[in-house]
């Protein structure tokens, strides 16, 4: 995903510096060209050799430690201007203060100053240091100047403090980079609404009627739209998935909740994708107390839920594109085409439950051009 991209990691003197070896390795595996600039203090926690072995590139610590090869291209300028994305993590209070105030007195700060690419800064320090109003003011200043701040996570810090200030998981740092550079931001300015996962229709305080949807399809679509720079609202039923970063998540349970959230978000949406497996029926009554078993069989009266896709199709805004999904066990194309017309959608993605590699709870789907029916020139 990062073929041809140059990623610069700025590593400063926080205990979490050692975690950046994993970040460098993950970026290399995604085919990025990775360069590392460290502060002198970072070398107390991890050696430059670690990064050199992982990235196959020279690590710089001092503005003046040039090799004869470097003389032709002034490393701090070429590294700064040549990067597609810079991640400074862990970012100490010191480096944040320097960058926020235009101080460039070492290799990292002089490299950042000429850069024109997205710069991500992940503050990582003791919670009291982080709360210090001067540090907060410097962080706010960086934001004002267009630096992207990755919020530190909460947990047990090396100093014994419990709270905010931890470097987030390496996977998340890599995701933040992918969000910036994995794909051209050709959907910038577009609002995409995606629904995902199952709904849960309660019968009583203990039982629900639900389905096998994992949410993987909707989450993957939301992530792809975010990679392309869209503003994304993901309306999700209960799933075990981590929400993709850079995506606004609205968690819901019932079909009625989903109707409310999707309809509200659709007001400003350019594209709505209904990937959720919404219940068509819900119990006519929800018992306040647990339903106790009795002798003999039992029938549960059900009533219809609102058809969200139909309602979106009927109230389509000017220029809006509505996409539905269709899961079938037989007559895939015929049944799916009927939904396209009936629900006034622009596109229906037809999913066969019986085909290997498609269906519920799998990481893949089948893409056959003929199985995608559209009305609009998308
Ligand atoms: N959908 C919806 N609101 C509902 C039910 C489904 O918006 N209450 C959406 C789904 O998110 C999906 C599409 O409609 O995009 C599926 O169409 P639908 O006709 O509901 O599929 P099935 O329920 O599988 O159809 P049928 O019961 O006729 O097989």
Our Rg estimate from Cα atoms comes to 25 Å
The distinct bound ligands, ions and cofactors come out as: cytidine-5'-triphosphate
How much strand content do the residues show? 15-25%
**Mean of pLDDT:** 92
Order of secondary-structure elements: EHEHHEHHEHHEEEHEEEHEEHEEEHEHEE
Kindly state the number of beta strands. Answer: 18
Q: Which shape, going by the Cα principal axes? A: elongated
Q: The biggest beta sheet, please?
A: 7 strands, mixed
Q: Count of helices?
A: 12
Low-pLDDT parts are 369-373
> Can you list the strand order of the major beta sheet?
12-11-8-13-16-17-18
Category by helix and strand content: alpha/beta
First-to-last CA distance: 24 Å
What does this structure look like?
With 378 residues, the chain is of the alpha/beta class. Helices cover 29% and strands 22% of the residues. It is built from 12 helices and 18 strands. The chain has helices spanning 20-29, 48-55, 75-82, 93-100, 107-112, 127-131, 133-144, 170-181, 216-227, 255-266, 308-314, 332-342, and strands at residues 6-11, 33-38, 85-91, 119-123, 148-149, 153-156, 162-166, 191-196, 201-202, 208-209, 231-236, 248-251, 271-274, 281-283, 302-304, 321-328, 347-352, 372-374. The strands form 5 sheets. A 7-stranded mixed sheet has the order 12-11-8-13-16-17-18, with helices on both faces. β16, α12 and β17 (347-352) form a beta-alpha-beta unit. α1 (20-29) crosses α8 and α4 packs across α7. The radius of gyration is 25 Å and the shape is elongated. Bound molecules: cytidine-5'-triphosphate. Cytidine-5'-triphosphate (CTP) binds next to α11 and β16. Cytidine-5'-triphosphate binds next to α11 and β16.
């Amino acid at each position: 995903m990062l073929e041809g991209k140059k990623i610069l990691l700025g590593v400063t003197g926080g205990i979490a510096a050692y975690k950046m070896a994993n970040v460098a390795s993950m970026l290399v595996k995604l085919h990025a060209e990775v360069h590392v600039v460290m502060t002198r203090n970072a070398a107390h926690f991890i050696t430059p050799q670690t990064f050199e072995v992982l990235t196959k590139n020279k690590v710089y610590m001092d503005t003046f430690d040039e090799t004869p090869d470097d003389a032709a291209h002034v490393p701090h300028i070429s590294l700064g201007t040549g990067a597609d994305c810079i991640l400074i993590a862990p970012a100490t209070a010191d480096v944040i203060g320097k960058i926020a105030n235009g101080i460039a007195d070492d290799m990292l700060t002089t490299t950042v100053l000429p850069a024109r690419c997205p710069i991500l800064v992940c503050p990582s320090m003791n919670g009291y240091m982080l709360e210090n109003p001067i540090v907060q003011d410097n962080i706010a200043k960086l934001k004002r100047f267009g630096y992207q701040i990755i919020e530190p996570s909460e947990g047990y810090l090396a100093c014994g403090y419990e709270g905010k200030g931890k470097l987030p998981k390496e996977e998340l740092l890599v995701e933040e980079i992918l969000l910036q550079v994995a794909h051209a931001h050709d959907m910038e300015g577009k609002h995409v609404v995606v629904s995902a996962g199952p709904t849960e229709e309660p019968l009583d305080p203990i039982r629900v009627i639900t389905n096998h949807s994992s949410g993987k399809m909707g989450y993957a679509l939301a992530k792809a739209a975010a990679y392309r720079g869209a503003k994304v609202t993901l309306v999700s039923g209960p799933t075990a998935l981590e929400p993709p970063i850079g995506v606004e998540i609205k968690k819901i349970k019932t079909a009625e909740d989903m109707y409310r959230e999707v309809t509200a978000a659709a007001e400003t949406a350019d594209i709505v994708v209904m990937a959720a497996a919404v219940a068509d029926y819900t119990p006519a009554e929800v018992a306040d107390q647990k339903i106790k078993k009795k002798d003999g069989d039992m029938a549960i009266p059900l009533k219809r839920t609102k058809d969200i896709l139909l309602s979106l199709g009927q109230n389509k805004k000017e220029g809006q594109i509505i996409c539905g999904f269709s899961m079938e066990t037989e007559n895939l194309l015929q049944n799916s085409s009927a939904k396209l017309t009936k629900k006034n959608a622009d596109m229906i993605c037809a999913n066969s439950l019986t085909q290997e590699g498609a269906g519920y709870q799998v990481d893949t789907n089948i893409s056959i051009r003929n199985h995608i029916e559209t009305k609009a020139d998308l």
